[in-house]
Amino acid sequence: MGRIATIAEFLDADSGLGVHCNDCGRYVELDLEPVAEKFGRDYLIVGVDTPFRRSLRCSACGSRNMQMTVIAPGTRMKSRFLPR
Ligand SMILES: [Zn+2]
What we know:
The protein is of the alpha+beta class and 84 residues long. It is built from 3 helices and 3 strands. It has one domain (7-71). The structure holds zinc ion. Zinc ion (ZN) binds at residues 21, 23-24, 26, 58, 60-61, 63.
């Protein structure tokens, strides 16, 4: 798999994005379609310090200590998680 960084690249590759909370262990898979609508398809979501990463916050414990993982195409589940 090549490097993917923007929402468009994720959607085109049919890849998902999982977010894991390092503090409480909560794990959710993001629905990137509403994120694309909100921020645009060229929005950068993978990077060391992107606005998207900074917007992530655990809905269970409020931690910002979140870890993002790329989910291989075809394996993602439907769930909803919107960054604030
Ligand atoms: Zn948490």
